[in-house]
Amino acid sequence: MGTQLTKTVHVGEQTLAIIKDVNIHVNAGEFVVIMGKSGSGKSTLLGLLAALDYPDSGSVELSGQVLSSLDEDALAVIRQRDMGFVFQSFHLLPTLTVAENIAFPLDIARRPNKARVDELIDAVGLGHRRNSLPNQLSGGEQQRTAVARALVSQPKIVFADEPTGNLDEQNAAQVMQLLLDLRQQVGSALVVVTHDPALAAMADRVITMHDGRVVAS
Ligand SMILES: Nc1ncnc2c1ncn2[C@@H]1O[C@H](COP(=O)(O)OP(=O)(O)OP(=O)(O)O)[C@@H](O)[C@H]1O
Question: Does the record carry Transport as a key word (predicted)?
Fold first, then answer.
């Protein structure tokens, strides 16, 4: 999905290459983990693949469509329709309830589907919390809400950046299992940046980054 990707940043007068000629292909339904030391470029690469950021050169494709040549409006539609996101710090909308947060991607796409939202609330075990606001939830409950939201529109691919990084071991295991189970039901591919070896052990493939390059796949 990413071909010959490079990304540079400017720090003072210096130009630093932080992604260097990375090629990465993710098959439909595949679960790929990206590992590597802090600062090796994992989050930057995820941002490029998820079209949250533009590469300096190279291209990103999703199902044959070249994303890196699209403008921001067109990308917003693709992110909404074909992608799901889970972040380390949950990123729920603070004024919306659990049910409203999960429904949000369908609502902005004008595709309300109450039955689908209810199904997911039950699947992540938050039936009793459906009308709670994010600040009334534990970290694990917030991340389970984020997992349901990421899968609600049955995306082609889900991107997760350290999804268990703010959770204790038990909550981390529960959130990850839900993410894996739900994406298997939907058939989405899953790309996860993590430092967690337990998670890497469950992946179809592990990509290791070092200093902006893929060093092992
Ligand atoms: N906007 C920016 N300006 C300057 N440097 C940046 C910028 N974004 C990223 N970097 C640098 O690029 C490198 C890669 O960053 P990135 O966040 O992708 O690494 P990472 O592997 O995800 O690290 P971590 O595991 O700590 O989250 C780091 O050295 C970082 O400091």
Answer: yes
